[in-house]
Design brief:
It is a single chain. This protein is 43% helix and 15% strand. The chain has 18 helices and eleven strands. The two termini are 42 Å apart.
């Protein structure tokens, strides 16, 4: 017998309410996560402070109570490496330097919420004696083609200057497009260039052949160079095939991110456990959304297929408030008003719940009816680094089945924009981000 009259009332009864992020009790969430090896934490925008702060709060508990030692993020590998070195005491405050996260969209990682979290990670590692128990921070994305080339060459110059000279000549094949890598694809499509696939593969193969020689001095430095070299291979293919009709650049990107996650897990050992910070569109199972009909996959789907119940993915949502976003690609960051949600969306249903903030378990529901009631597809909102309220329905909504998409959903009715550390795009950087997500 139903003891609720409306869906918002059922959600209210089936969720765990909290007043603020600092005081939320996450013990039940930790029980639901159980012994998962990978926990994926989403966001419904790239510019909402509450999403960053709640992910940080959950990640701290996973580190302290469940022994997680890996944080992977939808960020470029070389930029994330600065954070990794900072939290291990090998570099000055990463987010306050000029170099990391200097390309559009700077605010996505160079923001006050992230700064506070990296300070916590630095302090945690400082008091942790075992190197195996120290937390690492790693980037998953593949847009750092040229900064990864720079990182590989810097490494080779240190360990093997003769090989560095050969690698520099091979990578020189890509240099004509350093300012705008997307033009590389056009040059190949127009048969103006044969491509650089062989050159970048030779550099990776050459590096891997010298694993024993190079890694004996410093295994972590070799791993960093190896991941940058692999990124270059995948990024070269990504840009080379960007305009091919049969190519799916989204899938290439998410496949690379998942492979990087697996590489980090392998590097850190068989008992290691990882948190993934990425947009809902990457960590929610693509098979439960419109993406699947387009033949698109994502990290969330790949994680479930690989790890089964040992992967736990958590989506985030909001109804209204402010968000940090641009109006166009490469444009300045603006503080924009988030429009109240569409009448046919999941967000509208959650907005009508009497509680402002809550965790809604979906894999292990508090009320069995909740999954059944939420299964029919509804619209779901996704705000990336670009937000266009004037075309919100077309630009920012897609259909999804929430209980299939996520194992848990965290709701903040009203949210605020992240506070950027800087809004300037550094000189000499380039925009390589063809998606808003």
């Amino acid at each position: 017998m139903k003891n609720y009259r409306t869906l918002p009332e059922l959600i209210d009864q089936s969720s765990e309410h909290f007043a603020n992020i600092d005081d939320v009790n996450l013990d039940n969430l930790m029980e639901r996560i159980e012994d998962s090896r990978v926990v994926l934490l989403g966001e419904a925008s790239h510019g909402t402070a509450e999403f960053y702060e709640m992910r940080a709060r959950i990640t701290k508990e996973l580190i302290e109570k469940k022994g997680f030692t890996i944080i992977t993020a939808e960020a470029d590998w070389p930029d994330a490496a600065h954070i990794h070195r900072y939290i291990h005491g090998r570099e000055q405050d990463a987010l306050l330097q000029n170099k990391p996260f200097s390309r559009f969209p700077t605010w996505m990682w160079a923001n006050q919420s992230m700064l506070e979290f990296t300070h916590w990670l630095h302090a945690y590692n400082d008091k942790t004696e075992s190197s195996e128990e120290k937390v690492g921070f790693y980037g998953l994305d593949l847009y750092s083609l040229y900064s990864s080339i720079e990182a590989v060459l810097d490494y080779l110059q240190q360990v093997d200057p003769k090989t560095a000279k050969i690698a520099r000549e091979r990578y020189g094949c890509l240099m004509p497009w350093a300012d705008e890598p997307a033009l590389y694809s056009q040059a190949i499509a127009n048969k103006q260039h044969e491509g650089c696939e062989i050159e970048v593969l030779r550099n990776l193969q050459g590096l891997l052949k010298k694993y024993l020689e190079y890694s004996i001095a410093n295994r972590e430095q070799f791993f960093d160079a190896e991941q940058n070299a692999k990124l270059i291979v995948n990024a070269e293919r990504y840009y080379r095939t960007l305009y091919y009709a049969e190519s799916n650049s989204w899938n290439q990107r998410d496949q690379h991110m998942f492979e990087t996650l697996q590489a980090v897990l392998e590097f850190r050992g068989s008992k290691s456990k990882a948190v993934v910070w990425a947009h809902n569109s990457h960590i929610g199972d693509a098979r439960a959304t419109q993406m699947s009909a387009r033949g698109e996959l994502n990290i969330g789907q790949l994680a479930r297929q690989k790890y089964g119940d040992k992967a736990y993915n958590i989506g985030f949502g909001t109804d209204y408030g402010t968000v940090a976003a641009a109006s166009e690609w490469g444009g300045p960051m603006e503080i924009k008003q988030v429009q109240p949600s569409h009448i046919d969306s999941y967000e509208r249903v959650f907005h009508e719940v009497s509680t402002d903030n809550f965790l809604l378990p979906l894999r292990y529901p508090l009320n069995e009816d909740i999954r059944k009631e939420l299964l029919p597809e509804r619209l779901e909102r996704a705000i990336g680094v670009i937000y266009r309220p004037e075309t919100e329905r077309q630009s920012h909504y897609f259909y999804a089945s929430l209980p299939f998409q996520f194992d848990e959903y965290i709701w903040f009715d009203k949210t605020r924009a992240v506070e950027a550390l800087t809004k300037e795009i550094g000189e000499g950087t380039f925009d390589t981000f063809p998606f808003g997500l």
